[in-house]
Model the fold of this input.
Amino acid sequence: MLSAGCSSGQGASQPSSPRPTSSSSTSASASPSAAPQPSKYTQAQLASRPCLALDGHDLAALRISGEGKQESGKHGATCAWKLAGQNVSLALDLPLSYAKTMTKNGRVTQVPVGQHQAVQAEFQRICFIFVALHDTDHLVGTTTIPDRGVAQDGTCPAGASVAATALTHIR
Done:
């Protein structure tokens, strides 16, 4: 079952979580069949608690079983999930210098991620996706690595799906 860090969006309280904006619960009474609106956080709030970027509804929609695993890295906190044989890691405050390094020797393309344009780089079975929301000094990024024996063709779509879904939680 899902635990702390994931919310079904049905009024579950998480006192240690950053407070979502008040607009996140306005549609709950609009229609019983309407999907709940995602909780909204600042990019900085999600950068320190990246597993909040996907709630219980998102995990189900992406067919991710289990909660994300938060880890610390050189560029801050990341959250990792397993999605269809792909290991997807999300970071919400990556510097442009890191993106330039990770895209330097890869096959680089521009791709849509949600309503944003992103830079995608494929390098040695790894896919990197970087999205600039407010400025290029604080990028949202995913790193996706397929499990051994899993086809690489799902690597970038898995990372793009996680990034696009996470962006719906940033105000």
